[in-house]
Amino acid sequence: MGGREAGLKLVTGVTEYLHGQEDLQLWAYVFLNKHGLTQTLRATKLEAAEMLGDFMIGFSQASQRFMIVDVGALIEAEICLPRTEKIIFAGTHDGGYKTIFRSHITSGYKDKLVLLKTYDEDAARFAELGLDIFPIENLFDPEKLERPGTAIAKLIGCYTPKWPQLCKSANRQDMHTPDEKPQEDDLGVDLENLTNFPNDPDVNAAN
Question: Which of 1, 3, 8, 61 is deepest in the core (most CB within 10 A)?
Answer without folding.
Answer: 3
